[in-house]
């Protein structure tokens, strides 16, 4: 199916919230130069699974993860893995744009600052400019970098969050329904951006919009009731799904 | 679903714009990076430690405060007794036996010179100056013993009577050398004993720390709280209902709202000034000079003043409770033809009641612990007899604590702490009740 | 008649009116109508309302007016001519006459008062019976009026509900009346004070010694600047140095680090600190903390340390304020959307970096408002300073020296035995007005900040 090395691979991952099992025994590989989409009806565990990939589930006290998740062959749940470094390497963009109540500049500069990636102010300026350019936001905000990040429109805020994520030079970017709170034009811009970022980062995106999955991804995983039903090339999943459930979902029988 | 329906964007990575080259991912394994991470984790641990320290120290202070009070205060519930040998037939008292069964028994015993007889017995038993070892009120105990069993008047017997303050202190290791020597002597004779007793709860204020009790102040507090509740609860709840359910949104409503929010933060002592000026000041109205509207030092004035003070607390809590009742319940009631008043009094108010009561109890607890405004309106009198009604001069628990804390006699330290224990027990019970109510009715919808 | 008996009588009449009207309404001729507008109970309520309310209103007014009428009547008596002209003495004698009149076998020290006892008693009885009579008459009149109106088609429910509405409105007006009452009574007494003492002397004078007031120039010893400084120093500086770090760090620890069980137990524990009555803190400060602070100062070689130091009062006050700061900070940190916290954590910030760089800046307005409220609370706090701080008004930066506060002086001025109109007692009201205005301003600013902050996240 694919020749490129796997950036991340999950083996037998289950997630529990207290007694409730939200993700059941999922195994999946995320390729370096591809966009992997997670689709499925709401409550199917796709977002929960995504959050295990950079251990954001650690912030929920009752959540428990079993199984192995490897990043470049290293188990991210092993005690040797440092969660701060992990999250710098595996960035995340959330469903609702969540810029900090700081200036646009400070939003992007925050990551490089805390991780010490910019030795000097000019370096930091360069990182901010480069990240905003890559996020396709530079032209819109270059004259008002000191304005508050919360004053931007929803689509701009989300691109700012993407700029913020890529400012720390991650290796993987996780996107949790990044366009679900946006209008169609802003959504198109985000999708375009995902295309441009492809190949530079391994990208995993959760979406409940099947067209979006078809448009932006090369690999698609279909989740249902916490299990991974089917995983394969996007073309194949959308044209000749192997599983009946996948077919039903894609053709809109339920969901 | 056919693929042609899904619009495809041009695929494949574009060349990045001229300005930026794609940087290689950060190398986290370098020495400098590792060192930096270690430093960040150090900062994290320190920060976390400071947080823990702040919480622990605050809790430790509370524990220290409570332990100090309990350690000092439990002794307020003990009393030192002296076993006094008394020979009634030899005391020369003339007592009419028949009178002992009539209501005039107290008068008869007092008239028979019992007090002197008891002092004489002490002098006989412990040598000259022996009457100094027993409390001035010791004869009251003998009197009660005689009333309980008149036949002891024919006998010679030992009766436990309260020790004097000096002896009492010396037993606890606080007295002067002379008193301590006396105590050693009495102890050798086996005449001293210490008991846990609850007299403290039944007595009233006195100048003698051995004899003081909290009942007078407690009764004053209860009367004051009754007035406070009767005023603040109905007024607070009714105005909360008005503001939340019926008030039109206009400038007047805003004014009421701002007033209530600010009243909640006015220092309590200001309410004391208000009570002093309004209830106890002199008024000139329609050419008539009014004296004080209400009697000074009375539970009525204290209760009114505190009612004004806690009313905003009740209003705010009640408004929140009323607001929390889901609109669907109002809609349902309106839908079957209830009038707006019926909606509120039949449906909203009963559902909001647990929240309202919780807020009221918390407000009442605040009123119970309040001292400053009551000092200003004169509830700091020396009250030996518990108040009989709302207009009698009274004092309250916290003011009593304040008054005793000012006393120089060492004996008052433990009595002050004992009074604090009583006050804290009441407050704890009230807050516990509030928490219980909140938890029990928290998730009803 | 005894006031309580009268109230019971009126209530009883109301009950009878209720029962009568309900019984009548039960026998109404329905006249073919399926349902009447109002239920029998509502007719009853209408009659009870008309029976009780006018009579009750009259009783309230009458009990306020009666003392004045009695006094007027007593002054008509021939013996009253012997009363001294000076109003204060005259009132004292009248009060004594009143006491003799109301108590059995009491005697007066003053012969005039003794003579006036009988007329006082008769005047009291006269006006008392008059009031009772009118009240009962009003109750009957109200009942009769209401009963004539009650009928099959009478809309009793609407009338009762209108009455309820008025009652609700009156209840909520009491809040405004209280605020107004506080402001006016403070202002009134303060104006009387400023007639005797120039306002500039009071606000700008640096010498405070109310024990010795020069009758010719009372302003010289009533300069309140040392009190303002002491209040600020103890309440806004020393107490806050304790309360802000402890409160803030506690809130941070409990919201961000503590396990749920720890939070569940520690939060109420900290709140208990706010529930302890201030008189207990005061006692603790005076008994334990103040001597310890003095010993500490002496061990530093500062032998003149006061045992009523500003530090002791401020420290204990700070501990008392911790829960206020912590619960306000807790609320504002909790109000910051979790998405913001996740956003920071997701890019590899440590928890402490997230807190200090994202959460605290985002929650800052709420935290600042909480601190303002805490300051307002601290400077209005009375018992701790009354019991642990000194009465000596110093302007000092040394925490081991003594300092006094506005609240402490108010209590000291008003608990001494002196007549009501002296500059000394009036000064307490001027201090009270100053305190009221300052806490009000702090409060308004804080509430406004909180409101704007909430709007930002909603």
TrEMBL record, chain A:
| Gene Ontology MF terms | ATP binding; ATP hydrolysis activity; phosphate transmembrane transporter activity
Where in the numbering of this chain does the ABC transporter domain appear? 8-250
Q: Which UniProt keywords apply?
A: ATP-binding, Nucleotide-binding, Phosphate transport, Transport
Specify the domain of life of the species encoding this protein.
Bacteria
InterPro entries linked to this entry: AAA+_ATPase (IPR003593), ABC_transporter-like_ATP-bd (IPR003439), ABC_transporter-like_CS (IPR017871), P-loop_NTPase (IPR027417), PstB-like (IPR005670)
Quick check: keyword Transport in the entry?
A: yes
What's a GO cellular component annotated to this UniProt protein? membrane
Output the GO biological process annotations, alphabetical, semicolon-separated. Answer: phosphate ion transmembrane transport
NCBIfam families the UniProt entry points to:
3a0107s01c2
Name-wise, this protein is: Phosphate ABC transporter ATP-binding protein
- UniProt organism field: Sphingomonas gei
UniProtKB/TrEMBL annotation, chain B:
Q: Where is the ABC transmembrane type-1 domain?
A: 218-434
- Give the top-rank taxon of the lineage listed in the UniProt record for this protein: Bacteria
* Keywords annotated in UniProt: Cell membrane, Membrane, Transmembrane, Transmembrane helix, Transport
Entries under SUPFAM superfamilies matching the protein? MetI-like
Gene3D superfamilies, sorted: MetI-like
Gene Ontology biological process terms, A to Z: phosphate ion transmembrane transport
Q: Which InterPro entries match?
A: DUF3333, MetI-like, MetI-like_sf, Phosphate_PstA
Work out whether the entry's keyword set contains Transmembrane helix: yes
Q: How does it sit in the membrane?
A: Multi-pass membrane protein
Q: Name one Pfam family in it.
A: DUF3333
Ranges annotated as spanning the membrane: 49-71, 222-243, 263-286, 298-317, 348-369, 416-437
GO CC terms on record? plasma membrane
Q: Which residues form a coiled coil?
A: none
Instruction: Give the principal location in a single coarse category.
Output: membrane
User: Region Disordered: what ranges?
Assistant: 1-25
Q: Which CDD domains does the record cross-reference, listed alphabetically? A: TM_PBP2
Entry's localization field:
Cell inner membrane; Cell membrane
Name a GO molecular-function annotation. phosphate transmembrane transporter activity
Q: Which family does it belong to?
A: Belongs to the binding-protein-dependent transport system permease family. CysTW subfamily.
Q: What is this protein called?
A: Phosphate transport system permease protein PstA
Q: Could you tell me which species this protein originates from?
A: Sphingomonas gei
TrEMBL record, chain C:
Per its UniProt record, what InterPro entries does this chain match?
A: MetI-like, MetI-like_sf, Phosphate_PstC, PstC_N
Matches recorded under Gene3D superfamilies: MetI-like
Q: Where in the cell is it found?
A: Cell inner membrane; Cell membrane
Question: Per the record, what is one GO cellular component?
Answer: plasma membrane
Respond yes or no to whether keyword Transport is given for this record. yes
This protein's UniProt keywords: Cell inner membrane, Cell membrane, Membrane, Phosphate transport, Transmembrane, Transmembrane helix, Transport
**Which GO-annotated molecular functions does the record name?**
phosphate transmembrane transporter activity
In what residue span(s) does the ABC transmembrane type-1 domain sit?
A: 229-446
List GO BP terms, alphabetically.
phosphate ion transport
Q: Does the keyword Membrane apply?
A: yes
Q: Where are the transmembrane segments?
A: 6-25, 46-65, 126-152, 164-188, 227-249, 270-290, 310-337, 358-379, 426-450
Query: What membrane topology term does the record carry?
Result: Multi-pass membrane protein
Q: Which Pfam families match?
A: BPD_transp_1, DUF3708
Q: Which NCBIfam families match?
A: phosphate_pstC
Please give the family membership noted in the entry.
Belongs to the binding-protein-dependent transport system permease family. CysTW subfamily.
**What biological function has been recorded for the protein in this entry?**
Part of the binding-protein-dependent transport system for phosphate; probably responsible for the translocation of the substrate across the membrane.
Give the protein name, as stated in the record. Phosphate transport system permease protein
Task: Record the organism.
Answer: Sphingomonas gei
Mind giving the lineage of the organism this protein is from?
Answer: Bacteria, Pseudomonadati, Pseudomonadota, Alphaproteobacteria, Sphingomonadales
The gene that this protein is the product of is pstC
């Amino acid at each position: 199916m694919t020749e490129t090395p796997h950036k991340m691979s999950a083996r037998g991952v289950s997630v529990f919230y207290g007694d409730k099992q939200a993700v059941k025994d999922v195994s999946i590989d995320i390729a370096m130069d591809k966009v992997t989409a997670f689709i499925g009806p709401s409550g199917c565990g796709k977002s929960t699974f995504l959050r295990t990939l950079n251990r954001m589930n650690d912030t929920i006290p009752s959540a428990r993860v079993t199984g192995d998740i490897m990043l470049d062959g290293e188990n991210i749940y092993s005690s040797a893995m440092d969660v701060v470094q992990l999250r710098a390497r595996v960035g995340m963009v959330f469903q609702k744009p969540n810029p900090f109540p700081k200036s646009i500049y400070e939003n992007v500069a925050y990551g490089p600052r805390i991780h010490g990636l910019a030795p000097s102010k000019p370096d930091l300026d360069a990182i901010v400019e480069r990240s905003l350019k890559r996020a396709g936001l530079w032209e819109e905000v270059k004259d008002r970098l000191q304005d508050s990040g919360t004053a931007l429109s929803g689509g701009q805020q989300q691109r700012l969050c993407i700029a913020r994520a890529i400012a720390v030079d991650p290796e993987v970017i996780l996107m949790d329904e990044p366009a679900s709170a946006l209008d169609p034009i802003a959504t198109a811009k985000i999708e375009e951006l995902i295309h441009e970022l492809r190949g530079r980062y391994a990208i995993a995106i959760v979406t409940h919009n099947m067209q979006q999955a078809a448009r932006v991804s090369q690999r698609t995983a279909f989740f249902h009731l916490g299990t991974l039903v089917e995983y394969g090339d996007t073309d194949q999943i959308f044209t000749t799904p192997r599983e009946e459930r996948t077919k039903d979902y894609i053709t809109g029988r339920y969901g | 679903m056919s693929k042609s329906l899904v619009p495809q964007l041009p695929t494949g990575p574009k060349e990045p714009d001229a300005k930026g080259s794609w940087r290689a991912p950060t190398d986290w394994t370098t020495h400098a990076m590792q060192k930096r991470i270690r430093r960040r984790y150090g900062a994290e641990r320190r920060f976390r430690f400071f947080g823990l320290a702040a919480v622990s120290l605050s809790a430790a202070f509370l524990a220290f405060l409570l332990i100090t009070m309990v350690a000092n205060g439990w002794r307020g519930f003990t009393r030192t007794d002296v076993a006094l040998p008394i020979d009634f037939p030899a005391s020369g008292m003339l007592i009419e036996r028949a009178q002992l069964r009539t209501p005039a028994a107290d008068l008869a015993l007092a008239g028979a010179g019992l007090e002197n007889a008891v002092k004489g017995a002490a002098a006989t038993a412990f040598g000259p100056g022996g009457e100094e070892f027993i409390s001035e009120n010791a004869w009251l105990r003998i009197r009660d013993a005689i009333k309980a069993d008149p036949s002891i008047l024919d006998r010679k017997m030992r009766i436990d009577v309260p020790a004097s303050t000096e002896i009492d202190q010396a037993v606890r290791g606080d007295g002067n050398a002379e008193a301590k020597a006396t105590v050693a002597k009495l102890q050798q004779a086996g005449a001293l004993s210490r008991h846990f007793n609850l007299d403290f709860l039944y007595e009233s204020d006195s100048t003698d720390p051995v004899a003081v009790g909290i009942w007078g102040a407690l009764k004053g507090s209860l009367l004051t709280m009754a007035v406070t509740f009767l005023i603040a609860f109905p007024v607070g709840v009714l105005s909360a209902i008005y503001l939340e359910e019926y008030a039109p949104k206009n400038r007047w409503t805003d004014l009421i709202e701002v007033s209530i929010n600010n009243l909640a933060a006015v220092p309590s002592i200001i309410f004391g000034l208000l009570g002093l000026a309004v209830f106890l000041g002199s008024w000139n109205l329609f050419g008539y000079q009014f004296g004080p509207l209400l009697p000074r030092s009375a539970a009525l004035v204290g209760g009114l003043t505190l009612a004004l003070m806690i009313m905003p607390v009740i209003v705010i809590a009640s408004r929140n409770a009323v607001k929390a009742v889901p609109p669907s319940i109002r809609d349902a009631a309106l839908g079957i033809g209830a009038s707006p008043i019926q909606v509120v009094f039949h449906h909203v108010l009963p559902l909001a009641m647990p929240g309202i009561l919780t807020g009221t109890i918390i407000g009442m607890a605040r009123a119970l612990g309040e001292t400053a405004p009551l000092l200003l309106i004169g509830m700091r009198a020396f009250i030996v007899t518990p108040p009989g009604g709302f207009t009698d001069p009274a004092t309250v628990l916290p003011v009593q604590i304040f008054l005793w804390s000012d006393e120089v006699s060492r004996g008052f330290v433990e009595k002050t702490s004992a009074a604090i224990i009583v006050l804290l027990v009441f407050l704890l019970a009230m807050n516990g009740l509030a928490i219980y109510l909140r938890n029990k009715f928290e998730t009803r919808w | 008649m005894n006031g309580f008996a009268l109230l019971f009588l009126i209530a009883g009449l109301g009950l009878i009116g209720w029962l009568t009207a309900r019984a009548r309404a039960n026998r109404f001729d329905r006249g073919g109508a399926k349902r009447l507008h109002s239920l029998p109970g509502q007719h009853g309520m209408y009659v009870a309302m008309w029976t009780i309310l006018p009579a009750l209103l009259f009783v309230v007014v009458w009990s306020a007016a009666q003392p004045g009428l009695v006094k007027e009547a007593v002054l008509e008596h021939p013996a009253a001519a012997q009363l001294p002209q000076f109003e204060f003495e005259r009132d004292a004698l009248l009060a004594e006459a009143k006491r003799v009149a109301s108590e059995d076998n009491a005697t007066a020290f003053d012969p005039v008062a003794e003579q006036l006892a009988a007329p006082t008693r008769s005047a009291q009885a006269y006006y008392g019976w008059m009031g009772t009579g009118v009240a009962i008459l009003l109750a009957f009149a109200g009942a009769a009026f209401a009963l004539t109106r009650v009928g099959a088609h009478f809309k009793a429910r609407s009338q009762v509900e209108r009455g309820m509405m008025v009652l609700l409105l009156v209840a909520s007006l009491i809040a405004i009346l209280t605020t107004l009452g506080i402001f006016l009574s403070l202002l009134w007494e303060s104006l009387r004070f400023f007639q005797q003492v120039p306002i500039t002397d009071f606000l700008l004078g640096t010498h405070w010694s109310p024990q010795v007031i020069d009758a010719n120039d009372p302003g010289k010893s009533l300069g309140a600047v040392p009190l303002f400084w002491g209040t600020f120093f103890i309440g806004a500086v020393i107490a806050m140095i304790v309360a802000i770090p402890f409160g803030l760090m506690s809130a941070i620890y409990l919201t961000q680090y503590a396990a749920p069980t720890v939070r569940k137990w520690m939060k109420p524990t900290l709140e208990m600190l706010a529930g302890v009555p201030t008189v207990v803190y005061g006692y603790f400060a005076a008994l334990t903390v103040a001597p310890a602070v003095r010993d500490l100062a002496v061990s530093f070689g500062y032998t003149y340390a006061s045992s009523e130091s500003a530090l002791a009062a401020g420290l204990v006050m700070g501990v008392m304020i911790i829960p206020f700061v912590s619960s306000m900070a807790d609320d504002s940190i909790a109000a910051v959307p979790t998405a913001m916290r996740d956003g920071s954590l997701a890019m590899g910030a440590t928890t402490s970096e997230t807190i200090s760089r994202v959460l605290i800046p985002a929650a800052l307005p709420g935290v600042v408002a909480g601190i303002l409220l805490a300051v307002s609370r601290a400077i209005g706090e009375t018992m701790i300073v009354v019991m642990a701080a000194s009465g000596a008004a110093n302007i000092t930066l040394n925490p081991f020296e003594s300092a006094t506060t506005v609240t402490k002086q108010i209590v000291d001025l008003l608990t001494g035995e002196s007549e009501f109109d002296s500059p000394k007692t009036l000064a307490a009201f001027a201090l009270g007005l100053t305190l009221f205005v300052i806490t009000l301003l702090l409060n308004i600013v804080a509430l406004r900040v909180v409101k704007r902050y909430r709007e930002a996240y909603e």
